[in-house]
Design brief:
Strands 1-2 form a two-stranded antiparallel sheet. The radius of gyration is 12 Å and the shape is globular. It is mainly α and about 90 residues long. The protein contains seven helices and two strands, in the order αααβαααβα. The protein has a single domain (about 5-85), classed as Recoverin, domain 1. It has helices at about 5-15, 15-20, 25-40, 50-55, 60, 65, 75-85, and strands at about 50, 75.
Length: about 90
Amino acid sequence: MRPSIAALALLAAAGAASAQQMPPEFAQRLKESYRDAFALYDANRDGVLTRAEALGSNLLLAQFGAMDFDRSGAVTQAELARFLDAMPLSAQ
């Protein structure tokens, strides 16, 4: 059973210290949840997530500032990938 997005949001918001203790399988599922949520909440399917679009997802909203590397007010797919690559215990 996959963890709920709400549970994943709580873990993501807990910070890097707890993320470093995640098993690799869970880290991979967390990354997949971010990708799935990005695709789901990108309402106009332009590959860019605005803060308004992210309002529907606790997972994305909790980390929006961390994902918006250029502080443009939107998260591109490249920024999402950069955020996920920096996540501890990468399962690449």
